[in-house]
Amino acid sequence: MDVQVDHYIILGLPSGAEGAQISEKEITKAYRKKALELHPDKRPDDRNAHSDILQLNASYEILKDEKVRKLFDDLLRIRQDKVHQRSQHDSKRQRMMSDLEKREHTAFAPDLAAKTQEEEEIISRQLKEEIARIRAMQANKVASAIPTQRKEATVGGNGLDKEKMLKVSWEKIGDGYSAQRLRELFEKFGAVEDVVIKSSKKTLKRGSALVEMASKDAAVAATRTVRGDLTNPLLVLPLQPAVATAFTWLREQHVEPDGPKLNNLVGAGYQSFEVSVLKKMMQKAAEKQK
């Protein structure tokens, strides 16, 4: 939001004294018309499409705020006065015929220019402060719209350890997965503190849940192993990746998963390769302990 921008021109409206008389209704009408014209969907090949619509929104925010608009109108008036003064100054210089008139002009013109400059700086500073206020208001609106996932991650109190939390999702086929069924699957890797099935009208095709394990190591093991039913596999992801030791992770690989050993993300072939590498790592670790 640059104070040098003429926001009336951005909205396609007359500026200056004429712009100051425009009603808020006319400003809104002009904004909607301009928004349709500059919408990025209508200019897919224009690199400036995104920045143009951002500038349009910023100018509209300023002109629809009564206090900020008043400051902006005052700033435009000061600038127009400066242009007018310069024009008068140039015409006077052409008409000056005596040294007395030249001395008078030299004596008083700097004071007038300094006063005008000072007034412009004061109004510019006030306008910047109001623009900062608008930005703060917009930031608060965004901050208040916390994503649903982050809200659910805080279920259970301020002391919740996110590294123990797992995000689980599946296709809504047949009976799907109940909280008890998920608990049975994940308890093979350690104690389960809680299972919360997420219910949302927006996700009609997929089911999802949050599973809280009793330990971080159990969460790591379950993330790499739980796959659910073959006909409706589970996608298990950590809410926040946990740091586990090599021995802890290797130990968890011996837990037999529920159902056929199929990896939802990379396939059984990669899993076999992964197991062979882990065996070699375990052998080397055992040799070091001797």
TrEMBL record:
One of its GO terms (molecular function) is RNA binding. It holds the Pfam family DnaJ. CDD domains: DnaJ (cd06257), RRM_DNAJC17 (cd12429). Residues 153-233 form the RRM domain. It comes from the Eukaryota. The lineage of its organism: Eukaryota, Viridiplantae, Streptophyta, Embryophyta, Tracheophyta. InterPro entries: DnaJ_domain (IPR001623), DNAJC17_RRM (IPR034254), J_dom_sf (IPR036869), Nucleotide-bd_a/b_plait_sf (IPR012677), RBD_domain_sf (IPR035979), RRM_dom (IPR000504). This is DnaJ subfamily C member like. SMART domains: DnaJ (SM00271). Residues 6-76 form the J domain. It comes from Actinidia chinensis var. chinensis. Keywords: RNA-binding.
